[in-house]
Amino acid sequence: MTARARARYVAGLAAVAAAALALSFVVPPGDRRGLRAALGLALLVQGPLGWWLVRAIGTARFLRVWAAGIAARVAVVGLTALVLVRAVGLPPEATLFSLVGLLVALLGVEAVAVLPGRSGPEVR
């Protein structure tokens, strides 16, 4: 991964986090806690997974990394819905919609990080 791709990835994570945090101040008070919890979870999960995927671009392990990342994201949404929302008393709709939206936005950050060019060898 090039230094530019790393910088774009970190800048993208920061931009999405800042936008979500700013949004958390204007949503209804009952939903703020869910949005902020979703932001924390999304950054905790997507940050390392996205970094791993961006580093795997152009390598033979790319598909395995991508599949593991998707499985981890689905598992986080499922565990949040079935366990965390009830255990912590978070608002379900605000938490789950925010979590899914943030994970999708952060997936877009991965794409933008490598958009101008790929680093690494071409895999055929």
Task: Report what the structure shows.
It contains four helices and no strands. The longest helix has 28 residues, at 29-56. Helix 1 (3-23) packs antiparallel against helix 2 (29-56), helix 1 runs antiparallel to helix 4 (92-114) and helix 2 (29-56) packs parallel to helix 4 (92-114). It has 124 residues and is an all-alpha fold. The chain has helices spanning 3-23, 29-56, 62-88, 92-114. The model has no long low-confidence stretch (mean pLDDT 88). It has one domain (3-113). The protein starts with a helix and ends in a 10-residue tail after the last helix. The chain is flat and about 45 Å long.
Question: Which helices and strands, and how do they pair?
Answer:
Layout: H1 3-23, H2 29-56, H3 62-88, H4 92-114
Helix pairs in contact: 1-2, 1-4, 2-3, 2-4, 3-4
- Count of separate DSSP helical elements: 4
User: What share of residues are in beta strands?
Assistant: under 5%
**Record field, number of beta strands:** 0
What general outline do the C-alpha atoms trace? flat
Mean pLDDT: 88
Which structural category fits the helices and strands?
mainly alpha
Binned, the helix content reads: over 70%
Poorly predicted parts? none
The termini sit apart by: 19 Å
Radius of gyration: 16 Å
Q: Specify the biggest β-sheet.
A: none
**Overall tally of structural domains:** 1
List the secondary-structure elements in sequence, H or E: HHHH
